[in-house]
Amino acid sequence: MDGRTSAVVIVEGKRDRQRLLPLLREDVKVLCTFGIPSPERLAYLVDEVQSGVAVFLFTDNDHVGKRIRGILRDEFPDAIHLHTKIEYGGVETTPLDYLGAMLIRHELHVDSSPPE
Question: N or C: more exposed end of the chain, with fewer CB within 10 A?
Fold first, then answer.
């Protein structure tokens, strides 16, 4: 690993970040909006995302999550939008197997195969 970030996942809060970190490859950076982002927080997020890096917006499937995705869509028009099922309540309470499957689909999941 050369220390480069291959992708950025933007989530709503610290608990979402904590839930995802063990499942993600170490070259994937996780940033938080801490709710609906202020202009200052939005500027910080934009500054933290390196040019050419894939951006994933992973928010809850609720009113606030949809509003956050709308705000971030303007700043990251090429971002891939991920969200949990309504019945899970949020990223922090989504079952790990569901999160893992979603991350595998987008090649973000930690490689659990043994080294060769």
Answer: C
Distance of alpha carbon 9 from alpha carbon 81, whole angstroms: 10
Residues 43, 54: contact at Cβ < 8 Å?
no
**How many independent structural domains does the chain possess?**
1
b/e map 86-115, b = 16+ CB within 10 Å:
eebebbbebeeeebbebbeeeebbeeeeee
The DSSP output letter for 102 is H
CATH (domain of 25): 3.40.1360.10
Digit-coded pLDDT (tens) for 83-115: 888 899 899 999 999 999 999 999 998 865 434
